[in-house]
Design a protein that fits this description.
heterodimer; A: 110 residues; mainly beta; 6-stranded mixed beta sheet; 5-stranded antiparallel beta sheet; 0% helix; B: 115 residues; 7-stranded mixed beta sheet; 4-stranded antiparallel beta sheet
């Protein structure tokens, strides 16, 4: 079945620095790819979505890159701030459902 | 819109007891998904309903776990004879039609602790 690997599992950056998270996958459907954010004690909150025919999307300090040739999906938080501290998950569309990465725990140090 | 509602938010049970978790999807959504989240395994898919019918239960443990969706406004996940290894956060999500074409919206989760 579909395999999604997310790296790194833990990431610590200083406030104002960038945070980069990447997911690699083995296969995907033609549909939306997602990034979710999970704060402590909460569910997964939709962060950004990008359709499979889009290479790059930028929105409010977030940049998502999708390289379908290399089967890589990445999220870059530019100028991270402490409120960005959370666990981030990628979701890759399969043919019936979504496949989630194991998450990246991001800590932004003031 | 209240979003996906899960109750209870926290549940503590003794080993061998039964636990029932509830999920109310977003109004108008026809698909409901259940996931289990642990530190070690991450987010694991359990089961999925569309229009109240079970579509995929490939992630459900074969014993002690069952899920139902008796009407379009709620789904339940039942764990019989709970074991300490069942301790996890159980997340419910809903989407408009299900499958890979719609965004899944998640509830806050139920944190289950089995002593």
């Amino acid at each position: 079945g579909e395999q999604v690997e997310q790296r790194p599992p833990h990431l610590s950056v200083r406030e104002g620095d960038s945070a980069f998270i990447i997911c690699t996958y083995t296969d995907s459907a033609t549909a939306y790819f997602y990034w979710y954010k999970q704060e402590p004690g909460a569910g997964l909150q939709l962060l950004m979505s990008v359709f499979s025919n889009v290479d790059r999307k930028e929105e409010q300090g977030l940049t998502v890159l999708l390289n379908k040739k290399d089967k890589r999906l990445s999220l870059n938080l530019t100028a991270a701030h402490p409120g960005d501290s959370a666990v981030y998950f990628c979701a890759v569309p399969g043919y019936q459902n979504f496949y989630f990465g194991k998450g990246t725990s991001l800590t932004v140090i003031p | 819109n209240a979003g996906v509602i899960q109750t209870p938010r926290h549940k503590v049970t003794g080993k061998g007891q039964e636990a029932t978790l509830w999920c109310e999807p977003i109004s108008g959504h026809s698909a409901v998904f259940w996931y289990r989240q642990t530190i070690v395994q991450g987010l694991e898919f359990l089961t999925y309903f569309r229009n109240q019918a079970p579509i995929d239960d490939s992630g459900m443990p074969k014993e002690r776990f069952s899920a139902q969706m008796p009407n379009q406004s709620h789904s339940t996940l039942k764990i019989q004879s709970t074991q300490p290894q069942d301790s996890a956060v159980y997340l419910c999500a809903s989407s408009f039609t299900g499958g890979n074409q719609d965004t899944q919206y998640f509830g806050p989760g139920t944190r289950l602790l089995v002593l």
